[in-house]
Amino acid sequence: MTRITGLWTWLGDQLGHSRVQLGLSFRATVAAVVSLALAQFLNLPLPLWAVLTAVIVTQISVGRSLKATIDYLVGTVGGALYGGVIAVLIPHSNEIALLAVLALAVAPLALIAAMKPSLTVAPITAIIVLLVPAITHASPVASAFDRVLEVALGGFTGFFVSFLLFPSSAHPLVVEAAARTLAQLANALSELLAGLTQGLDVDALHRIQDGIGRALVQLNVVGAEAERERSARLAVGPDTGPLLRTLLRLRHDLVMIGRAAIIPLPDAFGTRLEPPLAQIGVAFANYMRASSAALLARRKPPSLDAVEAALEAYAAQIGALRREGLTRSLPGDAAERFFAIGFALEQMHQNFRDLERCVAEWVESPKGADRKSPTI
To answer: Is residue 127 part of a domain?
Structure first.
């Protein structure tokens, strides 16, 4: 009995962690079934394309589904029009002529798709418009019209299923991605500050910065989806721009600290600055982790008192070093890194104030406001 209970608990945990993925699976299945039923009801020649389109445009968030639907429709219409025009204007009654027409239809569309990946479906549609008439004995114009109708049916079916059935707004995804990025920034800061007194390996620096860069790329992707939902009035919620820009500026601060950490500070400075830098590392990292937790829990932002106290302790030690005349003896490159550290830390403090405002704004937005209720 205990094993069965443990199994059910484990299964419940796994389902809870995979809630978004399970929702996507369910929506894609429903979109495929509904699009096939509609295609059969409308007697479309090839329901396959309606079903495929419905599954393709059913994405993890409404904003991503909207973009996929628009991209797929634009690519399909463009490919169908171009392929249909080529097929009508250039005779291709024999195999050699068909090969030439196919090359003429595919080459420019493939080039466009290479430059704009969102239009990848355009050359595929042109190929279908050219070759399917030989199988179905329909005219190129009818083939182009059928492809557009099938894809439009599948696209709109997939989008409306994504919007109406267990919809997933991109705004919660923004919160989760921002929280992960803040936690990653906090972990990186401690390692970078330690490098100021101990030195930091270049490979380690690249690993840290590359990890943060990937997190920011993912955040920008879901942020664009959230803004697309807001622009289309499919969701309401805070503007994602200020939060994304604040995290990007914090990343730039860490880049400055990382560059200074490649070569450790002179021993006289490292010994004196190690305690206040350790205090800053703890206070700054704790603030970013607390802000991450506040975003996820939708609670008020944490206090900056510990951050400001750590900065004051660091500034006091810097003042003591200056009064003793030690800063005047620094070589040019060491002096540059020394003052860059202070500038970067002060910039982080200012960016923490922006982060505080961003967290407060997202907290004030009620959880239920991430998506508008659908009106039919």
So the answer is: yes
- Reading the block at residue 130, the tokens are 């050219």
Half-sphere exposure of 132 (CA within 13 A, CB side): 22
CA distances from residue 301 to 181, 250, 298, 356, 360 in whole angstroms, order as listed: 16, 17, 9, 6, 6
Q: How far apart are CA 180 and CA 307, in angstroms?
A: 21
Which one-letter DSSP state was computed for residue 368?
G
Distance, in Å, from the CA atom of 180 to the CA atom of 34, rounded to the nearest integer, reads: 37
Distance CA 221, CA 67 (A): 12
Residue 157 and residue 179 in one domain: no
pLDDT of residue 373: 39
For residues 23 and 168, the answer to whether their CB atoms sit within 8 Å is yes
Give the separation between CA 345 and CA 351, rounded to whole angstroms. 10
- For residue 160, report the phi and psi dihedrals to the nearest 5 degrees: -70, -30
Looking at 141, 164, 187, the residue that finishes a domain is 164
SS (H, E, C) 298-367: CCCCCCCHHHHHHHHHHHHHHHHHHHCCHHHHCCHHHHHHHHHHHHHHHHHHHHHHHHHHHHHHHHHCCH
Q: Where are the alpha helices (DSSP H) in the chain?
A: 2-17, 19-41, 47-57, 62-89, 95-115, 121-136, 140-164, 170-198, 202-231, 241-261, 267-297, 305-323, 332-364
CA distance 245 to 267: 36
Instruction: Tell which of 164, 188, 223 closes a domain.
Output: 164
The reply to whether the predicted model has a pTM over 0.70 is no
Query: Is 262 found in the same domain as 157?
Result: no
DSSP letter for each residue of 38-66: HHHHTT-S-HHHHHHHHHHH--SSHHHHH
Q: Which domain does 249 fall in, by range? A: 170-370
Run means of pLDDT, 10 residues per run, the chain, 376 residues: 54 52 78 89 84 79 74 86 84 79 87 86 84 67 80 84 70 86 89 73 78 87 80 74 92 86 71 82 93 90 93 87 73 73 89 93 63 40
**Tally of domains within the chain:** 2
Answer yes or no: do 182 and 244 share one domain.
Answer: yes
